[in-house]
Give the backbone structure.
Amino acid sequence: MNFLAASIESLGAKVVGWFTVGYGMFAFLGRAGLLLLDRTTWNRPTFDVVVKQVYFTAVQILHVFMGYTLVISWLIITIILSTARDFGLTEFASEMTIRVLVLELLPFLTALFIALRSGSAINTEVALMKVNNELDALAHCKVPPMQFEFLPRLIGGGVSVITLAGLAGLLALLMGYLSIYGVSAAGFEPYTRTIAKIFDFTIMAGLIAKCALFGLAVTLIPVTAGLETPKKLFMVPVSVLRGMMRVFFAIVAIEVVSLALKYI
Amino acid sequence: MAELAALPDDVARVSHELPLRANLSALDNIALIPIYQRHFGVDESNRQALHLLEQLGHAGIAALRDPDMTPAQRFITKLARAIILRRSRLIIDRPGAMLYDVPYPAFIRELAARAEMAGTWEIFDFSWNQALYQE
């Protein structure tokens, strides 16, 4: 009986904990959204931090990211093409390539890439700011941390994931064309027709929305996880661990919901 | 220390509990205040911050970040940040916790003389350090 009560109590505490974390995140997002509309937010230092964030998140790693996209795209395209040939479905190869790579796999991998590289860094930095009282110091000086530290990171994350996923998609489209038709203009017309057929308004809007949500997940969750850190240095790794687990679950949830909306 | 916790908002504090933003230079840490509080442009805020560091005799630390500063340089940056807040009171909270590389009552006196600031700087310190101030 005691065991049952303890289990219910523990489950209840967990559920309450999840709701508290979820509420905290959405409340933070609401405050950030309101600030975004405030004209005074857009001063030069805030804009500079946004530019710095985009540089560190997207530009600095561009060559590594494009190399990684090239290898992944080439592998997946080769697998799809050889499987399509084996089953005599070559005419569907280009559509299959675009759907699998450009719409699903590359945005997902981009989000994971940014989460591992920048999300973990953001989580650690915010946790250290909290532990070292840097946020208290900013508050004492009446410099709003949301405007100066957090909002630029959210915007930078969104912009970075959307642009990197877009670039990866374009590279995959080019690779797909070269793998299917080779260096010849003969396939240009059917290939572009397939692209136009797939990328209607709904799919494009859905893709952009999905990438923006990925961008939010890889920045908003680490920031809020960092802010939850108790003021103890040894809690920083725990905060990063929790934050990154949440990011992973959020990315998977966004992908699953997007797939369900598209194909079910 | 209970007195410190009860200090009102119009007090500018220099304290080891209020660190500098670690990834910003000394100049940026100071210049943030005119930008966000008085809505000055970045160039004008940087000019004001540099002028203040010059007044304190340490313009050379403008480009340094917190981890690259000596305790005394860090203290000067925090002091400049507190001065630029332009609050009615400036309190230096337990200077011994920040200035462990210089004889601190003399160092603060020297800075106060250089800065030629209006108003007085109040120092909150442990009672057993009182003898240091009587030298």
Notes: Residues 27-33+41-263 of chain A form one domain. Chain A touches chain B through 21 residues (CB under 8 Å). Chain A has a mean pLDDT of 92. DSSP finds nine helices and no strands in chain A.
